[in-house]
Amino acid sequence: MAVDLSQIVKAYDVRGVVPDQWDETLAELLGAAFARVTGATAIVTGHDMRPSSPGLSGAFARGAAAQGVDVTEIGLCSTDQLYYASGALDLPGAMFTASHNPARYNGIKLCRAGAAPVGQDTGLTEIRELVERWSESGAPEPAAGGPGTITRRDTLDDYATHLRSLVDLTSVRPLKVVVDAGNGMGGHTVPTVFAGLPLTLVPMYFELDGTFPNHEANPLDPANLVDLRKRVREEGADLGLAFDGDADRCFVVDERGEPVSPSAITALVASRELARNGGKGTIIHNLITSWSVPEVVRENGGTPARTRVGHSFIKAEMARSGAIFGGEHSAHYYFRDFWNADTGMLAALHVLAALGGQQGTLSALVAQYDRYTGSGEINSTVDDQAARLVAIRAAYEGREGITLDELDGLTVISTDWWFNVRPSNTEPLLRLNAEARDEATMTKIRDEALALIRSS
User: Which residues form the Alpha-D-phosphohexomutase C-terminal domain (predicted)?
Assistant: First the structure.
C-alpha cells in the first residue's frame, strides 16, 4: 500500500513520530528521492543525538548512494554545522533532527548546495510525491553507473575555525559564561567553538541525550530557562547562553539572570555586522521584532528590510537583497557570510565579543538596544481564525492615527504601539505579539487585543 506523507512532510522539513509515522525504510526512500530531485552527484548528511538519528541518517545515505550519489557523512553535528558543511563543500545536505520536539520525534532539514533551503515550493513536494509512489514499487535503479560511495568526514574543527574567522575576538576580556545545552548538540559544539577564548565555561546538561532528561531543549519557553537563570546568579557569571536541541538557536541571559530579548540581540549583532561592512548594508528583520531593530539599523548606516515570519522568507529575502544579516524574534540569526543560513553559535560569539570588548555588564550593554516593552508571544485557541482576524480589523479600521498591515496576519500600528496577530499554520491558534513605549500602554493594548481574539 502506498504511504501518505501529508502528516510528516511540513512546509520546510520532514518531521514526525518514529517509528509510528516514519522509519528507516521511508528514510531510505527519502534519500533516493532527494538524490533524484536535486540531481546531485554528491551530498552531505549529519544527525543529532536522538536515539533514532544514526539509523535514519544511515538509511537515507544508503538510499542516496543506491542512486549513484556519493555521500559524505559528518555524523554527530548541530544543524548549523551541517549548513557549514553544505556551504564549504558546496553540496546538498540533510540534517536529521527534530530540534526541540520530544524524544519520540525525528525529522530532516534539507538544503541544496550552499545551504540553500529546500521547502515545499523548492523541491520538498516533489520528494514527497516520489516517496509516496515508490513506497509500493521501491526506488528505481539509476539510469547509469553503479552505486555511490559512503564516507565519513569530521568537520567540527573546520566549522569552529570558520565561525571564529567571522568575529574579531582578539580583545575579549576574561568572562565567566554558563551554557545550558539542554542535552542537545550544543554540548558537542560549544567546547570546540569556544576553545582558546579567555572564558571560564560553566557547562550545564552537556551530556548528549535525546531523551532530554533535564528539561525540553526549547529555550523559547521560559520554563526551560529557569535552571540557567538560577545558575548564572549562583556563579556570579557575566552571562548565560541556552541552545535548543539542534543548537541552531541561541538565547542569552544577562548577569542578573534576566533573559535578553532576541530583538535586542538582533540589534546588537546588526550594529556589529554593519561596522564590519563599512557602515553599509541591508539588515532583514521579521515584522514582530521590536521597533528597536530598524531604529538601530538606521542609526548605524544600514537599511532595514521587514519580512514575514519564517526562515524561508528570511533566507529568500537575504538572497534577493544581498543582506548582510537577518534576525527573528525566535532567536534565529542569519548571516550572509554563513551562506545566508542561521547560526545561533555565531550570534553567541558576537555577544561574547561585544561584552568582552568593554568593561560594563551585559544588562548595561544591551539597554541601548532594548527600548520598548513587549508582550512576548501569546497563543490563543480559537474556533475560526479568519473570523477573529476580520473582527479585529473591524475594531481598528478607520480609527484616527491607526494603520493596518497584512504582510503576515494583521498588524495594527499606532504612533506609540503596535500589535500583530498571526494564525498558526498547524494548529487552531492565533499568535499575538504587542509592543509599546511603556509598560502601561503595552498592557492596555495587549489586553484589548486578547479580548477581541478570545471573544465568542
Answer: 377-450
